[in-house]
C-alpha cells in the first residue's frame, strides 16, 4: 500500500529540529513522498522551500504545495523555476487562501487555472496532485459545483488527487464514484488525520469543513482530560477507517502528520504497513 506524509514548515529552530527527528522516524515506513504545506498567499514560502530542501537532501522525494490565488503569472513562473532547480518533481497544486486583509487580485482564479499553467510552462516535468473534498469544499455552492470544479482540475492536467481528511468512508467512496461518472480516471488518494488531541481536531475540522461524526465527538467529550485514552480511541477509529478504505480499493493513504511521528507510526504498525 503506497503511503505519503504531509508536514508543515516549522516556525522556530526548535520546531525544525523536532521535525527532523520526526522525519527520521517516519522514513522507516518507506513513504512514496513527503509533502510540505504552503501558507495563505505564499506566507510560508521560505519555510516551505527550506523544508523541501532538507527532505530532498535526506534522499526522500518531496512534494511542494503551491497555491495561486493573488499570484501573477510571472511570479508563478519564477516559483516553478525555483522548485525545478531544487530538484522537486512533484507538486500539490492548490487555489489557496488569501492572507487576512489582502484584497483580491492576481491572474489565477481557480486551481484548474494553476494546473493548466504548470503544464503549459513545464510539460510533464512535475507530477501534479490536486485536492479533493469528499464532504464538499467549505466555499463551494453545492456538491455538484464542487465535483465539477474537481473534474476541471483533473482535466487541466493533474496526475492524481489527495482528499481532505474525513472519518466517514462512505463519503470517500461516493466522491470517487461521482468523480468517475464525470470521467475522472486518475487515482484519488484518501487523506488521513490521526486523532490525538480532541480540541485541536475539532478546531481544524470546523475550519476546513471536515465532518466529525457525532458519535466520535461524544466519545471524545467523554474522554476529555485523559490524553492516553483519546489516543487509544483515535487509533482504533482511524485504523478501522483505513482498513475499510484499503479493502474498498483506495490507491494509497496520505497521512496528515502535524509534524508528529508517533501517531502515524502507530497507525502503520496497526495496519501492518
Structure at a glance:
This protein is of the alpha/beta class. 48% of the residues lie in helices and 15% in strands. It has one domain: Alpha-Beta Barrel (TIM Barrel).
Architecture blueprint of SSEs:
Blueprint: E1 3-7, H1 13-26, E2 33-36, H2 45-57, E3 62-67, H3 73-86, E4 90-94, H4 111-122, E5 127-132, H5 143-155, E6 160-165, H6 169-181, E7 188-192, H7 198-208, H8 214-222, H9 227-247, E8 253-256, H10 262-271
Parallel strand pairs: 1-2, 1-8, 2-3, 3-4, 4-5, 5-6, 6-7, 7-8
Helix pairs in contact: 4-5, 9-10
Major sheet strand order: 1-2-3-4-5-6-7-8
The count of β-strands is: 8
Number of helices: 10
Give the N-to-C terminal Cα separation.
7 Å
Give the DSSP E fraction (strand runs of 2 or more residues): 15-25%
CATH architecture assignment name = Alpha-Beta Barrel
Find the structural class using helix and strand composition.
alpha/beta
Q: What is the overall shape?
A: globular
Largest sheet data = 8 strands, parallel, barrel
Return the domain count.
Answer: 1
Overall pLDDT level: 93
**CATH top level class name:** Alpha Beta
Portion of residues within helices: 40-55%
Stretches where pLDDT is under 50 for at least 5 consecutive residues are none
- Helix-strand pattern: EHEHEHEHEHEHEHHHEH
